[in-house]
Write a structure and sequence with these properties.
Blueprint (H helix, E strand, L loop, with lengths): L7 H9 L13 E5 L5 H16 L8 H9 L4 E16 H16 L6 H12 L14 E6 L2 E12 L7 E13 L3 H5 L6 E16 L2
Parallel strand pairs: 1-4
Antiparallel strand pairs: 2-6, 3-4, 4-5, 5-6
Length: about 210
């Protein structure tokens, strides 16, 4: 897969934001945390900052506030930014899931082999395409019809801290915009084996904080 890391110019582009048209409904990250008790307070504080930043984008999605929140975390360092990675492909749903899973790996910027984390990550990313009908009232999903088919935003917040992370907490803010060339009813019934015309745009970043 193509390296998704940012350049200085691309980072500025991400900060400028992008239109999502989510309306005024509450929008929130869906959290997926795999951390030790020592990092629970730290990850809770990071989540609060990211949730607040995303809420600023309720009417019009912008990645800039999320990037600013990452830079403001105490003792934090921005590890990687993936600004507006795009993919357009007629492909099975599970291929899209694996593509986004690789994007999480690239955001972390180092090999981390926590099996539980990766199993949960793949399950969460599968939910970004499968079972949407059961998530219509969830704040991490903003779904709407478009001229091209059906479009939606899906927001995930990953956190990992274990022996491999060597005293650091890694948090990945993951905002994916998906357009599927199918009508709403078809999109709500997709399975992992179904093939569909997908267009994906991903804005993501990873920030690292020391665990006291």
């Amino acid at each position: 897969m193509t390296d998704l890391s940012t350049t200085a110019q691309a980072e500025q582009s991400a900060a400028d934001g992008r239109t999502g048209g989510a309306g005024t409904a509450t929008v929130a990250f869906k959290p997926l945390f795999e951390v030790s008790p020592a990092a629970k307070d730290l990850v809770a504080a990071a989540e609060a900052r990211f949730q607040s930043a995303l809420a600023e984008s309720a009417a019009e999605f912008r990645f800039g506030p999320i990037q600013a929140a990452a830079k403001d975390l105490p003792g934090g360092s921005l590890v990687r930014i993936i600004p507006g990675f795009g993919l357009q492909e007629q492909a099975p749903t599970h291929v899209m899931v694996l593509t986004l899973k690789e994007a999480v790996r690239q955001a972390l910027s180092r090999p981390l082999d926590n099996d539980e984390f990766w199993e949960r990550t793949e399950k969460a990313l599968t939910s970004a395409f499968v079972g949407l009908g059961e998530q219509l009232d969830a704040p991490h999903l903003v779904l709407r019809p478009t001229a091209e088919g059906t479009s939606y935003d899906y927001h995930l917040l990953f956190a990992l801290e274990d022996e491999e992370t060597e005293g650091f907490l890694y948090v990945v803010a993951f905002c994916v915009h998906v357009t599927v060339g199918l009508d709403r009813a078809q999109v709500l019934e997709l399975s992992v084996e179904d093939t569909a015309p997908y267009s994906i745009r991903l804005d993501a970043l990873c920030v690292r904080q020391p665990v006291a």
